[in-house]
């Protein structure tokens, strides 16, 4: 099943800090769950059918079932943290909660983190190992939070595997600005100019990675926020329009009806209508 990153839940089976030595070799013992290997220091070779040279700042992800053999460098032995975990898609819909185990995550087998992400990963793996106390009530809560942060960092870093040029980084900055500043009066042309990239390139990259134009992505973000305002608050529609970056209530109502099939007020009335309890037979 394809993972929806916003709906992932995790369970940790084991966390191990591993200090290897000259001549160290091992295999992946537990293959029925997901595994992360974070390389804190040193160098070595991982083999899964293909051969990968691993070093400090590398994250290795293994889906269930994948065979692995490992060998440490004689001159610079590996220091790494291993996490053995399971994960599932656990989303809430009209019918309530639904749980679906994930047999793999959309991550590359090997990621080389840039400097800032490598520092963050080091801290997260150290914190996860320190805070994982399964025998204590609530002793896994912090470590699960750290693992979710690791997943988020790995997910955000994944596109850099194929795109290292500065223009792609500009695309990521524009995407982030749309996600975080959607409530502002944003114009794609201004963002392209600000980040020194052409509008045509931006459109190409958004369609390649998100399957929609920059404008459509911004519209989707604003619409998602508007739906939550209408579903869970009594804030006036005019104020919601302002909070979601629309020029006025008319523009917001027109855009909302186009995307959702009903006007904001009608959508709110339908979503907030109390459900009638059915009598027991």
From TrEMBL:
Q: Which residues form a coiled coil?
A: none
Q: Which residues form the HTH araC/xylS-type domain?
A: 172-270
The reply on keyword Transcription is yes
Protein keywords: DNA-binding, Transcription, Transcription regulation
User: What Gene Ontology molecular-function terms does this entry list?
Assistant: DNA-binding transcription factor activity; sequence-specific DNA binding
Do you know which SUPFAM superfamilies this protein is assigned to? Homeodomain-like, Regulatory protein AraC
Q: Which PANTHER family match?
A: ARAC-FAMILY TRANSCRIPTIONAL REGULATOR, HTH-TYPE TRANSCRIPTIONAL REGULATOR EXSA
| Protein name, per record | AraC family transcriptional regulator
From which organism does this entry originate? Paenibacillus thalictri
């Amino acid at each position: 099943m394809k993972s929806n990153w916003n709906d992932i839940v995790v369970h940790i089976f084991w966390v191990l800090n591993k200090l290897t030595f000259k001549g160290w070799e091992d295999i992946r013992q537990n293959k029925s769950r997901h595994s992360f290997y974070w390389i804190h220091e040193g160098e070595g070779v991982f083999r899964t059918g293909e051969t990968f040279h691993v070093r400090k700042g590398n994250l290795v992800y293994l889906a269930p079932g994948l065979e692995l053999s490992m060998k440490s460098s004689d001159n610079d032995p590996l220091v790494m943290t291993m996490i053995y975990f399971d994960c599932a898609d656990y989303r809430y819909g009209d019918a309530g909660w639904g749980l679906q185990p994930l047999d793999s995550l959309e991550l590359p087998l090997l990621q080389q983190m840039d400097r800032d992400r490598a520092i963050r990963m080091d801290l997260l793996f150290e914190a996860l190992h320190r805070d994982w106390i399964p025998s204590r009530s609530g002793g896994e809560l912090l470590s699960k939070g750290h693992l979710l942060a690791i997943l988020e960092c790995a997910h955000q870093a994944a596109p850099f595997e194929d795109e290292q040029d500065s223009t792609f980084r500009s695309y990521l900055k524009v995407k982030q600005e749309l996600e975080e500043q959607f409530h502002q009066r944003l114009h794609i042309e201004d963002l392209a100019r600000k980040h020194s990239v052409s509008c045509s390139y931006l459109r190409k990259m958004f369609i390649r990675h998100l399957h929609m134009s920059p404008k459509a992505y911004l519209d989707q973000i604003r619409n998602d926020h508007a739906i939550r305002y209408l579903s869970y608050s009594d804030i006036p529609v005019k104020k919601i329009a302002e909070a979601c970056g629309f020029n006025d209530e008319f523009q917001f109502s027109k855009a909302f009806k186009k995307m959702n099939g009903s006007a904001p007020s009608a959508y709110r009335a339908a979503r907030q209508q109390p459900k009638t309890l059915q009598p027991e037979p």
